[in-house]
User: Fold these one by one.
Assistant:
Number 1:
Amino acid sequence: MKGEALVIFDSVSVTRGDSRILENVNASVFRGGTTAVIGPNGAGKTTLLLAILGLARHTGAIRFAGGRRPRIGYVPQRLVFDRGAPVTAMDFLAAAIQRWPLWLGMRREARRRASEALERVGAGHLARSPMGRLSGGEHQRVMLALALSGRPELLLLDEPVAGVDIAGEQIFCDLLDELKKECDLTLVLVSHDLSMVTSHADHVICLNKTVRCQGPAPEVLTPENLASLYGIHMGLYRHGGGSARREESEGHSHDRDAG
Amino acid sequence: MPGEWGGFGFLKRAAVAAVLIAPACAAMGVNVVSFRLAFFSDAVSHSAFAGAAVGLLAGIDPRLTVAAFGILVGAAIVSARRWSDAPTDTAVGVAMAGVVALGIALISARGGLRSSMHLFLYGDLLTAGDFEIGLAAILLAVSLVFSALAYNRLLITSFDRNLAVALGVRERAYEYACALLLAVVVCFAVMAAGLLLATAMLVVPAAAGRNFARTAGGFFWWSVAASMVSSVAGLPASAAWNTPTGATIVLFSVALFGASAIYARLLK
């Protein structure tokens, strides 16, 4: 998919201590599309998202279309938090929506917006559920609701289905497709799940500190490119209703990217 | 019971000080529990060793030097966490070791200081005068204003710092402000309950509140309630049983925590 570039990475490098996390990254994210960032652990995928958010100090430039930073929604990797904390999904969203402290009550407008955001992702019934008791898929839907509550133009998702069961993954992916159709959303997706990438991304950036290859998904996701990126033989085969699964000749970790 | 001791001026002042300090401790205790800052709080309270010793040696009001050391240690730990790759508990451990060792060295070198350190080791609400009550009222006001401004933002930050920043939270500013205010509140708790139990004044009511509450707003109010009930019950009990006020208040809050843990286990 080609169109107007919403985000352009121009020679972006990130250094942390003595180690180079990203090196001379040149890539584009196209407006209205779904761009997947793939690569092995420590490739700098998360750092690339953090750089868009302005959270990773970098050299080079990250430019936005029209010179204006779009409204950005962010769904982080599965969070590590106090699972016994008395915070409901509604509290969590309202805390981000209203400035008025929650201990002095929830504003009607914040409650309405939070309810709408939860309904939009099919999580209205979770409003009163404590965050710590949500399943992986439910948790990610609440995080998506939070990201959408800011009416983003650009949505960044970091390993959104890691730790989510197959049913939850399917619901989440269908939801993303629906939202993209409904809203004028541009998605950037970091994922280890190549089946998800194949099914949902139209543009792929292969990253291992620097961009190894990028382009339309069918052109980029070749066994040769994947072998070069991951250092092992990998390919994709299609089965069932057209969804793709990956095959590999030796073990490969599904661990989330620490970079 | 209140009729028996209420006539004593010092007990009245202690009661007023207790009901002013209790909600301030609870308000900041919520953050201590949410951000797992109990060890941080301990390091700040133990800096009273060095703070009091330096004040007594230099002829400065030791309450001022205790507060100064508390703030200094709090800021040093937050900075170390930001600028060094050492784990937070390591940074806290080093800071705590430094201030405790300095305090012990100074106190040992000047044997005369030992008796003056008693107040900071065990605290004493009964010595609260008008000046302390005035300061406690200011501290309560500042804690409530801070909680009003920061509560929602710190809640999001406790889930994920990057997410908070992506949502526009200036988490660094809030972290420093929270640490500094926490340091001041801990110093007050040192005066009330002593440096050994200061952290308990913050952590235990908030831990009970966490168990009783079902919502984020409820967490705050249950913590305040647990802290107030402990103080209001602990003060007359300490007078009746002739036990230290700080320790008695903490014992009541620990009992409340026990009840809250049973409630959370069976009914929540």
Number 2:
Amino acid sequence: MSGEPILRFAEVSKIYPLPAGDVVALDRVTLTVDPGEFIAVMGPSGSGKSTLLNLMGCLDVPTSGEIYLSGQEISQMSDDDLTRLRRDRIGFVFQQFNLIPLLSAVENVEFPLVLTAGREESRLRAIEVMRAVHLNDALFTHRPAELSGGEQQRVAIARALVNDPDLLLCDEPTGNLDSKTGSAIMEILAAENREGKTVVMVTHDPGVAAYARRTIRIVDGRVA
Amino acid sequence: MFFSFATRNLRRHWIRSALSIIGIVIGVVAIASLGVMGNSINLLAANIITDVGDTVVVTPHTAIGGTFAGDPRTTVDAAIPAREVEEIRRAANPHRTIPVLQGADEVEFGRGESGYARIIGLEPGDIPVLLDIADGQHLRQNQAGALVGIHLAREYGISPGSRIAIGGEDVRVAGVLAERGMGFDINPDYAIVVSDGWYESHFGAKASYPMVIVRVGDPDAIDAVKDAIESRINRREDLVDVSDSREMLGQYEEIYDQITLFLLGIGGIALVVAAVNILNVMYISVTERIREIGVMRSIGALRREILRMFLYEAVILGVIGSVVGGLLSTAFGYLISVAAIEVATAGTTFGENFTVFDQSAVGFIVFGMAFGIGTSIVAGFYPAWRASHLAPVDAMRQK
């Protein structure tokens, strides 16, 4: 892959001030993610891997250091600009699926698109993406509560893909699924990676990490 | 999109939504119908009060002067002696000066019915100047007789030619007076008017008067007449209070305005309670959806879009509550006012053809509705703002 990295961390620290003393979640982390990579971030609980993913996803800003998303430094950006970055360039997949319970499956998927454009072409695009992750048409109008865990995670992946982002960030995407369903979800992510999407995934399951082509280990807030 | 979010969420928690709508409805109804009620009291007062725009009333000076007509604190046993009446007459010349005698006695109305009534003594020549006759004739000089106020006459079935007994003394009724309403000078509708001569001989000669009325033909001359009386009688010390009907009308209006304000205040309290309720509902709604808000923010919803979504909820609650409240208060305000007027004007004709709804009554309803919507938005704003300013990471960490 040529050109600049899609993500670059330079001496990034994240410190949570607590009454009992500051907690250093990330300690001067430097790393790069190139376009098209499939990376697994592994490490014990509390090692700072979720903090790393949140910073990658512009959900949080570092205490010190610089984060470049396609060469753009994010720590000085306004909340609105960060929000637009998340909306247009990043797709999130969570362990808890995090679908909006009030909305049907297809409405969940089209939500980021409606935020960007209008409603008109959103529905068609949403359906297209949902079919791509092998969701049955009959499930489109179901509420999240009426879907199985695997189905919910497919809806969540479809939602993450609907705006055609460069970067797919997954936090324990199979953590709440049985191994068979988990494998199916991983196949979808691997297929997206083959299509050119950059995927960064936090996991502590070595079997899941095996789908990735590179593994970053985090221990005590440092890249090991 | 966000609007449909708001409606879905309100429907999801429909009991909570309904309760907060009820709260707003109560607030709006309270403020609007109390406003309508206060307004109709005002209208009614304006309708009942006889507009005697050309009258100056002179009363004995009391220590607590300058309050309002009928203030019980001013009801002291004081009178204007005849010699001062003559002074007033000279000061007010060429306008007509009418000394008034007033007392009360037991009256037998025939058919075994009796009760206390106000007795007003006037010089027979002055009576046509002040009062109109509905039926019968005015009193003639040196003739015993009485004129009966119309409500008294109706209540006891008295007509010209009837005989009544005032304090045991038999009198023939010469006429029934026309309805006059609440006046600033005398209120004859429930009284009996007799000649001053008869009054003095009946109650014992008492050449002093609780009130002197000066009839000024030209309203522009009122101030001059008042000044003339003041400077003549109150030269050394304040012996009399001089007031005119415009002044007293102003005082009445002030009182009614106070009543209206008071009623609006009660309505306002109700609306504040409703606002706290909305605040509470919105706050709960935000709190239990923190995680959901975090998710929306993480997948690209802007702060102002989250703010908009929650404000829509508050506005929907406010608009529904205010419209329902507006309709109900139109109905309630009407019923309350009609009932109040019926009580206030019982036995009179003032309630007839009286409309409760004028421009300002409609104004009160519109004001109540606007206040309801405004309060909802204000109460919804803080929780909405809070929701939009949650950091997405922190919000999603909430269970």
